[in-house]
């Protein structure tokens, strides 16, 4: 009954009212998608920060107690890499737009810039996240292998495992860029162009 009445009102309304309704619906839809994205990013930031807070003291400790030089270097590099991840998180969190202190169009422009940066982060994850993880793991394994060639089978499994984890991380981030960030970016761009008309 309500749907029929809404349909009748919609058909009897003028084009200008229909356009206003479409803009309002687009505003609500975009805001819901951006809010959902921000919630997902908060969870990601917490997870990555927690992992870094665990890795920093653990690998710093191992860097001091590990018996092999290359392994010490690898553990130290992993600890530094975890600090770098925390800095990336801090920088990224600082760029989250605040919708309450800006005009709506400015907020959308900042949201667009933030989403573009998130897209770039995900597409470049291979260079700043996956490669250091894989290279530092392999460096540590090389240090163990130099001192204990008998452990080659175990080290090969761990090395291949780290490579598989790196490939999965890379793939999931590219998929996230394509399925999560890009659609939201397109919606924000559509809304910006609609509001500027």
TrEMBL record:
Which regions span the lipid bilayer?
Answer: 44-63, 69-89, 126-145, 151-174
**Protein name (Swiss-Prot/TrEMBL):** Uncharacterized protein
Keyword list, A-Z:
Membrane, Transmembrane, Transmembrane helix
């Amino acid at each position: 009954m309500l749907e029929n009445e809404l349909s009748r009102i919609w058909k009897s309304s003028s084009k200008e009212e229909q356009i206003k309704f479409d803009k309002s619906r687009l505003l609500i839809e975009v805001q819901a998608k951006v809010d959902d994205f921000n919630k997902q990013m908060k969870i990601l930031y917490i997870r990555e920060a927690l992992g870094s807070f665990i890795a920093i003291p653990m690998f710093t400790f191992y860097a001091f107690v590990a018996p092999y030089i290359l392994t010490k270097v690898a553990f130290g590099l992993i600890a530094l890499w975890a600090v770098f991840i925390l800095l990336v998180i801090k920088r990224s969190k600082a760029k989250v737009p605040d919708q309450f202190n800006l005009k709506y169009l400015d907020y959308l422009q900042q949201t667009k810039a933030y989403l573009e940066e998130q897209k770039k982060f995900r597409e470049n994850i291979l260079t700043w996240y996956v490669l250091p993880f894989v290279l530092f793991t392999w460096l540590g394994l090389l240090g163990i292998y130099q001192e204990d060639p008998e452990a080659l089978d175990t080290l090969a499994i761990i090395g291949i495992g780290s490579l598989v984890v790196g490939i999965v991380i890379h793939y999931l981030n590219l998929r996230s860029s394509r399925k999560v960030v890009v659609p939201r970016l397109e919606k924000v761009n559509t809304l910006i162009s609609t509001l500027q008309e």
